[in-house]
Every structure is written in structure tokens, then in C-alpha cells.
């Protein structure tokens, strides 16, 4: 069954390039990004995993652990990592699940048989510290993902979790945000000392609250 926002991310135990991982235990109190790629030794995937490695500090700043999965075996992943490191000028620094029996792929509905019967599509799941799924995105095999967008969504989700704000269309770090409808006007002064603009009763804009 498809995984929907708010569902508990299914737990699993899997072999990875960094040893056996029990997913929920491995996540601990961190945020998580679980993403699938179609196959090892393919060009787009090589660039994606290289870029993810280069973004290590950005994920760490957001208290986020990253884990990749494909249906290739462990030895294949290990060989491919050498190519990723060499061609993308980086060092892969996150685990890649060896899902040869497709158990994780099936658990997360990552194989879309009408697109490809064998390989996973490019799925992304962001998982919160409460182990609930906060975002799902599915890209076709032929389109490499925009990992800056994944960081942007993490920023937005963390602002919502910590400050009762949501982020408007095309929002980027540092721009104004909107106060969620659940916050009453009378509570705004205490919660948002930087002030706010009431454009409409339902559209209340405030500076990004976690910036100096
Ligand atoms: C790739 O990663 O380059 C790729 C994988 C499957 C289909 C098309 C491209």
C-alpha cells in the first residue's frame, strides 16, 4: 500500500554499506531522508549520490541522517562507491541499503511496475523525529533530483515544527513566512515578537523567526 504523509515510516532491518541497520533505531531522534535510485553504475544515480555526499554538512546542520537504497547487492554497491568517489570527487559518507530481495523497495512502494518492473523509481521520503513521514516525492528514473529542494523542505518542516509557521510558494531561507491558521491573533504578539503583517485574516506574514 502507498505510504502517505503522517504514516509511521515502516521499520526494517537491512544490510547496508555501513553494516546492518535497524532503521528506526538508526534514525534515533534525528530527521531522516530515505531515497531510492534505480540501479548501481548508472550515470544519473552516480551524480545524485556524489552530490548527497557533498551535502553532508548541510544535512548535519539540519540534524538529518541520509540513507539510499537500490535493489543491487552489497558487493555491487561497494564497487560502485569507488566510482562515485572517483568521478564525483567526494567520499560517500552515508549508508546505501543492499535491497536485492526488494523487501525495502516493496515496503515503501518504490517499484512502479508500469514504469519499470524491476528497478525502483527515484522516491524520496523525509521522516521526522517522531518517525512519521513528512514528505514523499517520486521522480522518474531519467530525472536527477534537486537536493537543494530537499534541504529547503527540511528547513520548512523544521520551521513548522518549532515555530508554528508555514512557508509560502518558492520560499527560500531568510524570506518571510506565514503564521499557521491555528495560531490565534491574540497569541501572535507573544509568539512572534518581530511583529507581523495581516494581509487578510488568514494571511499573516512574519519575518523568519529563527534568524537574528
Ligand atoms: C541513471 O541513473 O542514469 C538512470 C537509471 C535508469 C534509467 C535512466 C537513467
Assign the structural class, choosing from mainly alpha, mainly beta, alpha/beta, alpha+beta, or little secondary structure. Answer: alpha+beta
Spatial ordering of strands, largest sheet: 5-4-3-6-7
Low-pLDDT parts are none
Q: What is the residue-averaged pLDDT?
A: 97
Rg result: 19 Å
Give the CATH superfamily of the largest domain: Glutaredoxin
**Largest sheet data:** 5 strands, mixed
Counted by DSSP, the helix tally is 7
> Termini, distance in Å?
44 Å
> Assembly type of the shown chains?
single chain
- List the helices and strands in order: EEHEHHEHEHEEHEEHEE
E-strand count: 11
Count of domains: 2
CATH level-3 fold name of the largest domain: Glutaredoxin
Bound molecules: benzoic acid
Can you tell me about this structure?
This protein has 212 residues and is α+β, with helices and mostly antiparallel strands. Strands 5-4-3-6-7 form a five-stranded mixed β-sheet. The protein has a four-stranded antiparallel β-sheet with strand order 8-9-11-10. Helices cover 32% and strands 24% of the residues. The chain is built from seven helices and eleven strands. The protein has helices at residues 23-27, 43-54, 56-61, 74-88, 103-107, 147-163, 185-191; strands at residues 13-16, 19-22, 31-36, 64-70, 96-98, 122-127, 133-139, 165-166, 177-179, 197-200, 203-206. The structure holds benzoic acid (BEZ).
Amino acid at each position: 500500500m502507498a505510504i502517505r504523509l503522517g504514516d509511521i515510516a515502516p521499520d526494517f532491518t537491512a544490510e547496508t554499506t555501513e553494516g546492518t541497520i535497524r532503521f528506526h533505531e538508526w534514525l534515533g531522534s534525528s530527521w531522516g531522508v530515505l531515497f531510492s535510485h534505480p540501479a548501481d553504475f548508472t550515470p544519473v544515480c552516480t551524480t545524485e549520490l556524489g552530490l548527497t555526499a557533498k551535502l553532508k554538512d548541510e544535512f548535519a546542520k539540519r540534524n538529518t541522517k541520509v540513507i539510499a537504497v537500490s535493489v543491487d547487492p552489497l558487493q555491487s554497491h561497494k564497487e560502485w562507491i569507488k566510482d562515485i568517489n572517483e568521478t564525483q570527487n567526494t567520499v560517500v559518507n552515508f549508508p546505501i541499503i543492499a535491497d536485492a530481495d526488494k523487501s525495502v523497495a516493496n515496503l515503501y512502494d518504490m517499484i512502479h511496475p508500469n514504469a519499470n518492473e524491476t528497478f525502483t523509481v527515484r522516491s524520496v521520503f523525509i521522516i521526522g523525529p517522531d518517525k512519521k513521514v513528512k514528505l514523499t516525492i517520486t521522480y522518474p528514473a531519467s530525472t536527477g533530483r534537486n537536493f537543494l529542494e530537499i534541504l529547503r523542505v527540511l528547513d520548512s518542516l523544521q520551521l513548522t515544527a518549532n515555530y508554528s509557521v508555514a512557508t509560502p510558494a518558492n520560499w527560500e531561507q531568510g524570506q518571510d513566512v506565514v503564521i499557521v491558521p491555528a495560531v490565534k491573533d491574540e497569541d501572535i504578539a507573544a509568539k512572534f515578537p518581530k511583529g507581523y503583517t495581516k494581509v487578510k485574516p488568514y494571511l499573516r506574514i512574519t519575518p523568519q523567526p529563527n534568524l537574528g
